[in-house]
Protein backbone atom coordinates (compact mmCIF):
# COMPACT_ATOMS: atom_id res chain seq x y z
CA UNK A 1 0.00 0.00 0.00
CA UNK A 2 1.27 3.50 -0.80
CA UNK A 3 -0.08 4.65 2.57
CA UNK A 4 2.32 2.64 4.66
CA UNK A 5 5.32 4.21 6.32
CA UNK A 6 8.47 2.38 7.35
CA UNK A 7 7.40 1.03 10.73
CA UNK A 8 4.12 -0.08 9.18
CA UNK A 9 5.99 -2.11 6.60
CA UNK A 10 7.51 -4.42 9.18
CA UNK A 11 6.28 -7.94 8.61
CA UNK A 12 6.61 -8.71 12.29
CA UNK A 13 5.03 -6.31 14.78
CA UNK A 14 7.57 -4.76 17.11
CA UNK A 15 7.60 -6.12 20.64
CA UNK A 16 7.06 -3.15 22.94
CA UNK A 17 7.90 -4.08 26.53
CA UNK A 18 5.12 -2.37 28.49
CA UNK A 19 6.73 -0.87 31.63
CA UNK A 20 9.62 -3.22 30.84
CA UNK A 21 9.19 -6.98 31.20
CA UNK A 22 6.65 -6.11 33.86
CA UNK A 23 5.02 -9.52 34.18
CA UNK A 24 8.30 -10.95 35.48
CA UNK A 25 9.85 -7.95 37.23
CA UNK A 26 8.67 -4.80 39.02
CA UNK A 27 7.53 -2.24 36.42
CA UNK A 28 9.75 0.73 35.56
CA UNK A 29 12.85 -0.57 37.34
CA UNK A 30 16.22 -1.37 35.82
CA UNK A 31 15.42 -5.04 36.59
CA UNK A 32 12.31 -4.79 34.40
CA UNK A 33 14.04 -2.96 31.54
CA UNK A 34 17.12 -5.23 31.67
CA UNK A 35 14.87 -8.25 31.46
CA UNK A 36 13.01 -6.73 28.48
CA UNK A 37 16.31 -6.51 26.61
CA UNK A 38 17.26 -10.03 27.65
CA UNK A 39 13.87 -11.21 26.35
CA UNK A 40 14.68 -9.49 23.02
CA UNK A 41 12.04 -6.77 23.12
CA UNK A 42 12.47 -4.21 20.32
CA UNK A 43 11.15 -1.29 22.35
CA UNK A 44 11.04 -0.40 26.05
CA UNK A 45 7.94 1.53 27.10
CA UNK A 46 8.45 4.13 29.83
CA UNK A 47 5.75 6.17 31.57
CA UNK A 48 6.80 9.52 32.99
CA UNK A 49 5.73 11.62 35.95
CA UNK A 50 7.21 14.91 37.13
CA UNK A 51 8.65 15.42 40.63
CA UNK A 52 8.10 18.46 42.88
CA UNK A 53 11.54 19.74 41.87
CA UNK A 54 10.92 19.32 38.14
CA UNK A 55 12.74 16.05 37.51
CA UNK A 56 11.28 13.49 35.12
CA UNK A 57 10.94 9.98 36.57
CA UNK A 58 9.72 6.66 35.19
CA UNK A 59 6.47 5.97 36.99
CA UNK A 60 3.02 4.93 35.83
CA UNK A 61 0.63 6.01 38.59
CA UNK A 62 0.20 9.55 39.90
CA UNK A 63 0.49 8.10 43.42
CA UNK A 64 3.17 6.03 45.10
CA UNK A 65 1.15 3.40 46.97
CA UNK A 66 0.79 0.63 44.40
CA UNK A 67 4.42 0.25 43.32
CA UNK A 68 6.54 1.60 46.19
CA UNK A 69 6.64 1.69 50.00
CA UNK A 70 5.83 5.42 49.88
CA UNK A 71 2.53 7.31 49.89
CA UNK A 72 1.04 10.35 48.22
CA UNK A 73 1.49 12.03 44.86
CA UNK A 74 4.77 11.72 42.94
CA UNK A 75 4.56 15.41 42.04
CA UNK A 76 4.49 16.36 45.73
CA UNK A 77 7.88 14.68 46.35
CA UNK A 78 11.39 15.77 45.50
CA UNK A 79 13.64 13.41 43.58
CA UNK A 80 15.74 12.97 46.75
CA UNK A 81 12.63 11.85 48.64
CA UNK A 82 11.62 9.45 45.86
CA UNK A 83 15.13 7.97 45.80
CA UNK A 84 14.68 6.71 49.38
CA UNK A 85 11.77 4.46 48.31
CA UNK A 86 11.77 0.73 47.58
CA UNK A 87 10.28 0.19 44.10
CA UNK A 88 10.47 -3.62 44.05
CA UNK A 89 9.24 -5.24 47.26
CA UNK A 90 5.58 -4.62 46.39
CA UNK A 91 6.11 -7.00 43.43
CA UNK A 92 7.53 -9.74 45.63
CA UNK A 93 4.55 -9.48 47.97
CA UNK A 94 1.98 -9.39 45.18
CA UNK A 95 3.57 -12.09 43.02
CA UNK A 96 5.44 -14.47 45.37
CA UNK A 97 5.80 -17.04 42.58
CA UNK A 98 7.81 -14.52 40.53
CA UNK A 99 9.59 -12.83 43.45
CA UNK A 100 13.34 -12.24 43.55
CA UNK A 101 15.17 -10.95 46.61
CA UNK A 102 17.18 -8.52 44.46
CA UNK A 103 13.98 -6.69 43.44
CA UNK A 104 13.79 -5.17 46.92
CA UNK A 105 16.83 -3.02 46.01
CA UNK A 106 15.19 -1.44 42.94
CA UNK A 107 14.81 2.35 42.87
CA UNK A 108 12.70 4.90 41.01
CA UNK A 109 14.72 6.05 37.97
CA UNK A 110 15.00 9.36 36.17
CA UNK A 111 14.63 9.62 32.41
CA UNK A 112 18.28 10.73 32.29
CA UNK A 113 19.40 7.56 34.10
CA UNK A 114 17.33 5.46 31.70
CA UNK A 115 18.67 7.17 28.58
CA UNK A 116 22.24 6.77 29.87
CA UNK A 117 21.74 3.05 30.43
CA UNK A 118 19.53 2.00 27.50
CA UNK A 119 20.05 4.36 24.56
CA UNK A 120 21.41 2.29 21.69
CA UNK A 121 20.38 -1.02 23.29
CA UNK A 122 16.65 -0.85 22.55
CA UNK A 123 14.22 1.59 21.02
CA UNK A 124 12.40 3.70 23.57
CA UNK A 125 8.74 4.63 23.77
CA UNK A 126 8.16 7.38 26.30
CA UNK A 127 4.72 8.35 27.58
CA UNK A 128 4.08 11.74 29.17
CA UNK A 129 1.50 11.00 31.88
CA UNK A 130 -1.17 13.51 32.95
CA UNK A 131 0.60 16.49 31.32
CA UNK A 132 -2.21 18.82 32.42
CA UNK A 133 -1.04 18.28 36.01
CA UNK A 134 2.65 17.67 35.33
CA UNK A 135 3.17 21.16 33.95
CA UNK A 136 6.31 21.72 31.92
CA UNK A 137 6.99 18.03 31.39
CA UNK A 138 7.32 18.47 27.62
CA UNK A 139 10.21 20.90 28.09
CA UNK A 140 11.98 18.54 30.49
CA UNK A 141 11.55 15.58 28.12
CA UNK A 142 12.91 17.56 25.16
CA UNK A 143 15.90 18.76 27.23
CA UNK A 144 16.67 15.25 28.44
CA UNK A 145 16.54 13.80 24.92
CA UNK A 146 18.74 16.68 23.73
CA UNK A 147 21.29 16.09 26.53
CA UNK A 148 21.63 12.48 25.44
CA UNK A 149 22.02 13.31 21.76
CA UNK A 150 18.78 11.57 20.86
CA UNK A 151 17.25 14.35 18.74
CA UNK A 152 18.88 13.35 15.46
CA UNK A 153 17.46 12.86 11.97
CA UNK A 154 18.69 9.26 12.00
CA UNK A 155 16.85 8.52 15.25
CA UNK A 156 13.74 10.21 13.89
CA UNK A 157 13.66 8.11 10.73
CA UNK A 158 14.41 4.89 12.63
CA UNK A 159 11.84 5.77 15.29
CA UNK A 160 14.53 5.07 17.88
CA UNK A 161 12.61 7.25 20.33
CA UNK A 162 8.86 7.80 20.11
CA UNK A 163 6.97 9.96 22.59
CA UNK A 164 3.33 9.24 23.27
CA UNK A 165 0.47 10.86 25.17
CA UNK A 166 -3.29 10.54 25.49
CA UNK A 167 -3.37 14.37 25.52
CA UNK A 168 -3.17 16.03 22.08
CA UNK A 169 -2.12 19.41 23.49
CA UNK A 170 0.93 17.85 25.09
CA UNK A 171 2.05 16.23 21.84
CA UNK A 172 1.53 19.50 19.94
CA UNK A 173 3.63 21.32 22.52
CA UNK A 174 6.43 18.77 22.27
CA UNK A 175 6.29 19.00 18.48
CA UNK A 176 7.22 22.69 18.70
CA UNK A 177 10.05 21.93 21.18
CA UNK A 178 11.49 18.96 19.28
CA UNK A 179 10.50 19.22 15.61
CA UNK A 180 10.79 15.90 13.79
CA UNK A 181 10.54 13.71 16.89
CA UNK A 182 8.03 10.90 16.14
CA UNK A 183 4.89 11.28 18.23
CA UNK A 184 2.16 8.75 19.06
CA UNK A 185 -1.41 9.67 19.88
CA UNK A 186 -2.64 7.17 22.45
CA UNK A 187 -6.36 6.44 22.17
CA UNK A 188 -8.44 5.67 25.25
CA UNK A 189 -10.18 2.32 25.38
CA UNK A 190 -13.53 2.61 23.62
CA UNK A 191 -12.61 5.75 21.68
CA UNK A 192 -11.48 4.23 18.37
CA UNK A 193 -15.06 4.29 17.12
CA UNK A 194 -15.09 8.08 17.58
CA UNK A 195 -12.30 8.49 15.02
CA UNK A 196 -13.69 9.34 11.61
CA UNK A 197 -11.70 10.87 8.76
CA UNK A 198 -11.68 14.47 10.15
CA UNK A 199 -10.22 13.30 13.48
CA UNK A 200 -7.64 11.13 11.72
CA UNK A 201 -6.60 14.03 9.51
CA UNK A 202 -6.15 16.19 12.61
CA UNK A 203 -4.05 13.54 14.38
CA UNK A 204 -1.86 13.26 11.28
CA UNK A 205 -0.90 16.94 11.57
CA UNK A 206 1.16 16.25 14.73
CA UNK A 207 1.49 12.47 15.18
CA UNK A 208 2.54 9.65 12.88
CA UNK A 209 1.23 6.76 14.94
CA UNK A 210 -1.63 5.80 17.22
CA UNK A 211 -1.97 3.17 19.92
CA UNK A 212 -5.36 1.55 20.43
CA UNK A 213 -6.63 -0.85 23.05
CA UNK A 214 -6.49 -4.44 21.75
CA UNK A 215 -10.08 -5.05 22.79
CA UNK A 216 -11.18 -2.28 20.41
CA UNK A 217 -9.03 -3.43 17.49
CA UNK A 218 -10.75 -4.94 14.48
CA UNK A 219 -9.44 -5.71 11.00
CA UNK A 220 -11.68 -2.90 9.74
CA UNK A 221 -10.63 -0.09 12.11
CA UNK A 222 -6.94 -0.95 11.82
CA UNK A 223 -7.28 -0.80 8.03
CA UNK A 224 -9.02 2.59 8.29
CA UNK A 225 -6.28 4.00 10.53
CA UNK A 226 -3.56 2.74 8.20
CA UNK A 227 -5.34 4.18 5.18
CA UNK A 228 -5.26 7.54 6.95
CA UNK A 229 -1.46 7.16 6.88
CA UNK A 230 -1.03 6.32 10.54
CA UNK A 231 1.17 3.63 12.02
CA UNK A 232 -0.98 1.50 14.32
CA UNK A 233 0.06 -0.11 17.58
CA UNK A 234 -2.05 -1.95 20.13
CA UNK A 235 -1.91 -2.19 23.93
CA UNK A 236 -1.61 -4.22 26.22
CA UNK A 237 -1.61 -7.85 25.10
CA UNK A 238 -0.31 -10.65 27.29
CA UNK A 239 -2.01 -13.73 25.90
CA UNK A 240 -1.01 -15.64 22.80
CA UNK A 241 -4.47 -15.80 21.26
CA UNK A 242 -4.90 -12.03 21.14
CA UNK A 243 -1.33 -11.60 19.90
CA UNK A 244 -2.11 -13.96 17.01
CA UNK A 245 -5.43 -12.20 16.27
CA UNK A 246 -3.87 -8.73 16.21
CA UNK A 247 -0.98 -9.86 14.02
CA UNK A 248 -3.44 -10.61 11.20
CA UNK A 249 -4.57 -6.94 11.19
CA UNK A 250 -1.21 -5.56 10.11
CA UNK A 251 -0.40 -3.62 13.24
CA UNK A 252 3.17 -2.41 13.71
CA UNK A 253 3.72 -2.89 17.41
CA UNK A 254 2.33 -4.80 20.35
CA UNK A 255 2.64 -3.46 23.87
CA UNK A 256 3.04 -6.41 26.18
CA UNK A 257 4.04 -7.12 29.77
CA UNK A 258 5.42 -10.42 28.47
CA UNK A 259 7.88 -9.61 25.69
CA UNK A 260 9.20 -13.19 25.73
CA UNK A 261 5.76 -14.50 24.76
CA UNK A 262 5.38 -12.04 21.87
CA UNK A 263 8.94 -12.65 20.63
CA UNK A 264 8.27 -16.40 20.66
CA UNK A 265 5.03 -16.00 18.71
CA UNK A 266 6.49 -13.73 16.05
CA UNK A 267 9.89 -15.40 15.64
CA UNK A 268 8.55 -18.16 13.39
CA UNK A 269 7.09 -15.59 11.01
O1 LIG B 1 -0.28 3.55 24.34
C1 LIG B 1 -0.87 3.23 25.58
C2 LIG B 1 0.09 2.46 26.43
O2 LIG B 1 1.14 3.29 26.85
C3 LIG B 1 -0.58 1.73 27.59
O3 LIG B 1 -1.13 2.63 28.52
O4 LIG B 1 -2.20 3.04 30.65
O5 LIG B 1 -0.51 1.22 30.57
O6 LIG B 1 0.19 3.57 30.38
P1 LIG B 1 -0.89 2.58 30.11
CA1 LIG C 1 2.04 3.84 29.01
From TrEMBL:
SUPFAM superfamilies: PLC-like phosphodiesterases. Residues 13-266 form the GP-PDE domain. It holds the Pfam family GDPD. Keywords: Signal. This is Glycerophosphodiester phosphodiesterase.
